[in-house]
Amino acid sequence: MQKNATGSASGGLNSENPQKPAAEKAKQSTVSKSQTPMQIAMEEARAAGARGEVPIGAVITRKNQIIARAGNRTREINDPTAHAEVLAIRMACEVLQNERLGECDLYVTLEPCAMCAAAISFARIRRLYYASSDPKGGGVEYGPRFYSQPTCHHAPDVYSGIGEAEATALLRDFFKEKRK
Ligand SMILES: [Zn+2]
């Protein structure tokens, strides 16, 4: 099911669709050569951890630009749906003024849960990259395996394992600290 992180040009044909240049506003920053989107997602994860949230971060890119970045905020705003992926999707939809993110790729530090896997599908995200797998709470390669179900109408291309060691260490340290 998973593809190699080196990737392919799959989806490349429609990826440079020239329409909709409209609502690209301020927030964008070009992906710097020194920091990959996954490294920026990792920054968001660390920032979430520093706020006392589960340290998970997500980034959405479109045409090599970061259009949204977020970390978990479930505690801060008392919202069980405020996962990094959901917040990043909301932000990207706001930036693009569109409920569909068909030319966008999402990077997240942990395998999305079932809720986020569904949201990624509904948003028509093109590619999903995640660092660590989550046998306990994942919804992509574990649990409901959302994208393999006949009721799933859009599945992103899935790439996993990029930056896995760092993301896993971050979560492990966070929960170790909590158990003290
Ligand atoms: Zn989630």
Write the layout of secondary structure elements.
Blueprint: E1 29-30, H1 37-50, E2 57-62, E3 65-71, H2 84-96, E4 104-110, H3 114-122, E5 127-132, E6 157-160, H4 164-179
Parallel strand pairs: 4-5, 5-6
Antiparallel strand pairs: 1-3, 2-3, 2-4
Helix pairs in contact: 1-4
Residues 83, 85, 112-113, 115-116 line the site of zinc ion.
Family: Belongs to the cytidine and deoxycytidylate deaminase family. ADAT2 subfamily.
Active site: 85 (proton donor)
Enzyme class: hydrolase
Radius of gyration from CA coordinates: 15 Å
Query: How many beta-strand elements?
Result: 6
The 3D shape can be described as globular
CATH class: Alpha Beta
Low-confidence stretches: 1-27
CATH architecture annotation: 3-Layer(aba) Sandwich
Major sheet: arrangement of strands: 1-3-2-4-5-6
Helix content: 25-40%
In DSSP terms, counting alpha (H) and pi (I) runs of 4 or more, how many helices? 4
Order of helix and strand elements from N to C terminus:
EHEEHEHEEH
Structural class: alpha/beta
What is the total number of structural domains? 1
Give the termini separation: 38 Å
The ligands found in this model are: zinc ion
Largest sheet: 6 strands, mixed
Average pLDDT for all residues: 86
Q: What would CATH call the homologous superfamily?
A: Cytidine Deaminase, domain 2
Strand content: 15-25%
Cofactor: Zn(2+)
Pfam family, one: dCMP_cyt_deam_1
EC number: 3.5.4.33
InterPro entries: APOBEC/CMP_deaminase_Zn-bd, CMP_dCMP_dom, Cytidine_deaminase-like, tRNA_aden_deaminase
Describe, in plain words, how this protein is organized in 3D.
The structure is a single chain. Strands 1-3-2-4-5-6 form a six-stranded mixed beta sheet. The protein has a single domain, classed as Cytidine Deaminase, domain 2 (3-Layer(aba) Sandwich), CATH 3.40.140. Helix 3 links the parallel strand 4 (104-110) and strand 5. Helix 1 (37-50) packs parallel to helix 4. The longest helix is centred in the C-terminal third of the chain and has 16 residues, at 164-179. The chain contains four helices and six strands; from the N terminus they run E-H-E-E-H-E-H-E-E-H. It has 180 residues and is α/β, with parallel strands linked by helices. The protein is globular. The protein has helices at 37-50, 84-96, 114-122, 164-179; strands at 29-30, 57-62, 65-71, 104-110, 127-132, 157-160. Bound molecules: zinc ion (ZN). Zinc ion (ZN) is lined by residues 83, 85, 112-113, 115-116. Residues 83, 85, 112-113, 115-116 line the site of zinc ion.
